[in-house]
Amino acid sequence: MTTREASHAGSWYEDDPSVLSSQLDEFLGRVPASLNDSALPIPGARVIIAPHAGYSYSGPCAAWAYKTLDLSNAKRVFILGPSHTYYLRGCALTTFDKYETPFGDLIVDKATTAELKRTGRFSDMPARRDVDEHSLEMHIPYLWKRLEQTFGTDSAKYPPIIPILVGDGTEEQEQAYGQLLAQYLKDPTTAWIISSDFCHWGSRFSYRPVFDNGKIRNLDADRKDKHLELRPGWEQLVDNPDNMKIHEVIEMLDKMAMNAVESGAHHKFYHVIQQTQNTVCGRHPIGVIMAALEVLTKDQRPEDGRGKLKFVQYQRSNLVEKVWDFSVSYASAYAIV
């Protein structure tokens, strides 16, 4: 059996299993024992959005999503993340049989990946690109920790994983993948991890929106008109819209995206990203899961927000005030399905 090595262990996160376990326990321990009048994990919370940066940056934020995640009935875990290592259109599946972690290996659900491959809608991840990619790997140790808490120390009881890279695509293409994956989402024995950081601000990301004369403009935009197209009402998302600091601009742009996600309307999220150009790296995985959730809830009466993602934590790596600085935003959410 082929095993994808834990290539980021020892750099992006600890490679010593005891040290890593203690770190994850610490992060999870900082999260309250209950949220939204429910003890954690939240029953039926089978879908989460969580960040994928180095654990020293995003680990505390990711803990909020992972502590909500209900794995009690899980027999398969889908992990959807963006591609950082090569340009991808559509979706791609791993060719490995196992994913290594410092704790042990998680098995890939080859039957499900083969079934998805037969649809003709999925390519294979090149093995080297798969190993280099961090958006999927960063969730494997966290998942192991939560599986251990749910099923005990016998890893033979842990459900297999289905890692999927979600690449570039139009609104209609995201909806098509959502329609395809909805049949799996409908299965109450599936859990879903959506990998995404939010705003990447700084010259290294070619994205530096600032407040200028009543408008938001991107200092790094190529086009002559650098002002971003924001819908009316954005001013309500900040305390002082007439004199915003850069980190307040970042928060406002992230809130626009997060509010669109919480609306449950895939088209709203897609168009907010188009208008603001917010550098949400997992925008396509988020779009696909939103489209899938819409399929499930289409003919259902809304019940306590079921089928809609709800954010429980938002953090930034740095509160930017100078144009030469940079930051990455992190957010955690869950959905009861």
Automatic annotation (TrEMBL):
Q: Which domain of life is it from?
A: Eukaryota
InterPro entries reported in the protein's UniProt record: MEMO1_fam
Q: Please name one Pfam family that this protein belongs to.
A: Memo
Signal peptide range equals none
HAMAP family per record = MEMO1
Membership in a protein family: Belongs to the MEMO1 family.
Can you name this protein?
MEMO1 family protein
Species source reads Chaetomium thermophilum (strain DSM 1495 / CBS 144.50 / IMI 039719) (Thermochaetoides thermophila)
